[in-house]
User: Fold this.
Amino acid sequence: MTTDLKRSMVVKQSGSGEADMTEKKNKKASPLRSLSVGLITLLILVVYAYGFQVTKVNLEELKSEQRQSSLQRVTRALARPDLFEYDQTEVVVNYPILTPCNPDGTLPSAPEHAEGEPYMIITPGCAEPGSTIQVEGFNFGPNMDGSVRFVPGNDPNNILSLGKDVVIMDNDGYFKLSMELPVRPSDDVQYIRTRVRTNVGTPHFTQTAKDTWEKIIETVFLALLATTFGTFLAIPLSFLAARNLMKPIRSPLTSVSFSLIGWPIGIALGYFIVSWIGKLSSLLNMNPLLDLVAVLLAIFLVWFGLRWALPQAETTTPGKGLRFLRILVMLGCLLVGFFGLFELARLTLSVGRGLIPTLGSFGFLGNFMFQVGDIILIITSVAGALAAGGAISSGLSKFGLKLAERLPASKVKIMNLILAPIAVSTILILGGQLIEWLYQIGNPLIYLWGPLITGIVIGIGLAAFSKPKDTFPTGMVVYTITRTLLNGLRSIEALVMAIVFVIAVGIGPFAGVLALGLHTIVSLGKLYSEQVESIMTGPVEAVTATGANRLQTIIYGVVPQIVPPYISYTMYRWDINVRMSTIIGFVGGGGIGFLLQQNINLLNYRGASAQMLAIAIVVASMDYISSVLREKTI
Amino acid sequence: MLQIRNLTKIYEGGVKALDNVSFDVPDGQFLAVIGLSGSGKSTLLRCINRLIEPTDGQILWNDVDITQASQEEMREIRRKIGMVFQHFNLVHRSKVITNVLAGRLGYVNPAWSFLNRFPKEDLEKARQQMERMGIADKANHRADELSGGQQQRVGIARALMQDPELILADEPVASLDPVLAHSIMKHLEDINKTDGVTVMCSLHFLDIVHRYADRAIALNEGKLVFEGLPEDIDDDRFKEIYGREAERVG
Assistant:
């Protein structure tokens, strides 16, 4: 009774489910199902068969005698990396022979030899080409090994020799060999040569080993620099590519338009001002001492200016006059700061240049200073332009936000109708300029009027069809652009990037650093951003609840959580970069790859083996070091 | 005075977490919010400091409508509202002192806080608050080295750093054992009675509600189903709040 009840309940609960189950069971047994399984199996077979065809799988090749012997040769060469060598002494003994025999039956006279010196006896003294003769050697030193060869022509010093018979001496330095003469008939006397090489002294590194060492060091530092640069640039990018951080960022159209207009204006203005400061500082560039004073003065001024203009905490909002004054002081600090940076660059440039000759073998430190100065010089202009762009854009965007919040909807709408077309067409015209630069079409319709009119239409459309106070998902737009860029660039192998950079900066390790660095930025950017997306939301919520602004929330709520995965991914990337840098030389990107490729092309497999060994050692030890460091930091 | 007027929250996907909820919280009151899991307690508390954007309704705090505040204004409102969480929500890898100082982020100049620089007064304040919560000796430990009860004290210290006028406590004792639960509740009671901070605290156990709360409200499927003194929750009321099948524990 109860079981009946239960069953009926089960049926009630899952009436349709049970029907499904029975259907499934039927399916399992049906011939249709076995047919489909068979078909799928067949399909898989066909796929693999075609794969064999396409990749030309052919083990018959391996069986061929010729392949096997060359494989043997290469493997044996690879097993003996060209690392050490001895200084050698060489004993060469030539013995004259006639082949074929003189018709008059005379034999060449046996060479003289002093008592105890190595000498040879060949019987018979003349023989037909291709016949076998007997070679005996005496006093060659006990247990040595040597080679016996036929020297064609009548010059005993001819370096050309034919055949190679290896002989091993007995305890008395004696050997006996049956040797087949090559078919080289001549009326002149020819020679049989025995050559014995003896190692002298201790082994020392070969030139190959020294070159390999030099290049492997280059390789390791190439990987180090690429990883470092890549990591620094990947971190900010990863925040822009993290959905959870970007999604809440929304702003009204007024503010978006303002910030879009602000970027180009700011960049142009910033570049103008900063290069003006640069010129000013180059006018003052008289001696390093003056530069040093200027740098110190700038640091001093900026520090105290900022201390005054940015109080640590304020409970009451300051008055308008004070706020204006503060902004002025901060602007002044910025200008002085850039001036200081230029002076710093010039100081390091001149000090570095001066140090190169005086430091001797530590001249690379001087060169480092020189290069750093150069980098500061270049970066300062770019950073100034970008900083001004960002500052003006965010200032304008805040202004726009306030306007959108305070003003009545109708006024905001009118403002949007004016601002949005300007903003969109500015961006489109800049895009048009880029297209013009790339393709050189030379048609103003495409690079000026087209984008202008499209921008105005889109802008007016956006402003007209959106509610004036609605917000746009600006964060998601930035997120999508960043992600697309990362994914697109990531799909280009570093090796391919290196080819481009070789054209840009010339063959050498610097091209490799740039290529690997760029690839590191995009791939780490992606990996990092995925880590940001998987953080715990609780702490972020808590920090937000304290009234922290967005950047504070990231620094206090997000950053501490992502430090361990960031470190471990960086290590992982360093690993990859070391491996990549070993082959980036194949396309001229510096490092050990160049040597390796050269040796393989020259069929110098012992040399190639030395480089492969070096790569193996470096990769294995990097692997070990990175795993130890990773364990320590997490 | 906190006044909630017709507060409604509909999540994406149509789930109605809060349905036309209205009530007042006078300054200095200890208000308990009760109800089943999923009844909208957390949503209600998070709407008040706009960690969750309400769909409709008003939240008036000292006659300022929080729902209409701009981002700038929100920063100033949030820094006066401390929040305590069920899972403590500490940043595990940071030191306890850093977690506590994070409570000042709404006050300090952002530029300096990026460099982890806090004014001397704030450091002193953090020391006092940790002393008050009995965790002064843990200041330089990592937050995840602490036990649950200690972590919640850090959470309260962080909220106190904000000089709050209101503390929102979202099931502050739900992941603690009964002994620890009472010690944490005593801290909240002390903050309420000594400092005069209004406390809104969602709770699960009625004995804790009876012991600490001045007043209680109850939510069921997003609707306000009870508002009154904790003592008034008798068996009938209880079944109204928690449903017919529910049985009382503790």
